[in-house]
Amino acid sequence: MMKDRIYSAALILGVLICALLIRYFEPIVFDAFWLAIVIVSIFEMIRLFKRKGSNCFEWIAYAYAVAFLAIVLIVKFLELAFYQMIILQLALLIAVSVVLLILPFCFSSKIVYDESKFSSPREYLMNKSITTLNIIVYPTLLLSLMYILNHINSLGIVEDGATDEVFGLFAILLVFVISMMTDTFAMLGGMLFKGKKLCPLISPNKTISGFICGLIMGTISSILMYVIFNAFDSFNEIFVANNIAAWQFAIFGLIGALATSLGDLFASYLKRRAFVKDFGRAFPGHGGFMDRLNGVCFNILIILIFFVIFF
User: Fold this and answer.
1) What's the rounded mean pLDDT across residues 77-81?
2) CA-CA distance, 55 to 125, in Å (whole number)?
3) Which of 188, 175, 139 is nearest to 259 (CA)?
């Protein structure tokens, strides 16, 4: 079992490193790579909800994932402002939500449904709409924020001396480093110090000691990212121009580590409600894609907020 976990971890890390190396030369390649991950994550969430007896409008969930990326690329190539992209993304989300809320009132008489679970076709369709909205927000919307980090310069979030190839890579690395360090040392800290359980009803293996170790190392990893990249003149100029110091990275490193831990607990809650151990079986010993990305989902949002506020 441990050997499978080590092999799977090495495979995941290797694929991620290759994707980031290719991305350095062309950020859009990383968009394609990440879109594939988002699609697989949606598939895993759809399957999880089906285990709970809930279906969704699958084509809408997948179409939203593609549309989100399309808007980011349109804004990038037309050189629109960041706030314009936010407006377009909100318009997309509202439009999809309205469609999903209207669908239960259309064609309900022609729908075949499980009468043992739902009292009417409309109730069945409303359940599908709500499930679809859940999947659109988690994980689709949260994971899709990575596209914004990938094009952080072109979208006008960071401008002074930055390029997508360099600073976008830094932003993506920050997400993964904080999340991976938090997860790794939460597990190691729990194994080493043991002690009281953090949330035994949701995740019986997580301990308070592991949770604290994860927060500490997530914070330290963020500070180290600042120290390492600040040694390069191009990054130092950006940090100085925006009055960025180590304490800002420490604060958001701590918040990012906390978000990672909460994301892990939220995923455990969903799996427990569906009576499954893992989202999938893509990585032996590690589960599916969402088992590896549950903390990353929330951390992406935190890091994006960090760059919007301080840069």
Assistant:
1) 91
2) 9
3) 175
Residue for token pair 């694929």: 15
User: Which two tokens mark 52?
Assistant: 């709970």
Strand partners, 287: 283
Per-residue pLDDT tens over the stretch 196-206: 888 888 888 88
Look up tokens 């449904």; give the residue.
Answer: 113
Q: Residue 114: left if φ>0, alpha if ψ -120 to 50, beta else—which one?
A: beta
Q: In this structure, which long-range contacts are made by residues 204-211, counting pairs with CB atoms below 8 Å and at least 24 apart in sequence?
A: 206/264, 206/265, 206/268, 210/185, 210/186, 211/186, 211/261
For the chain, the first-to-last Cα distance in angstroms comes to 44
> Each residue of 169-184: pLDDT tens digit?
899 999 999 999 999 8
Looking at residue 194, what is its pLDDT? Answer: 81
Average pLDDT of the chain is: 88
Amino acid at 156: G
Q: Looking at this protein, which amino acid is placed at residue 41?
A: S
What is the SS3 assignment for 197?
A: strand
- Cα dihedral 229→174→147→79 (10° resolution): -30
pLDDT higher than 60, residue 5: no
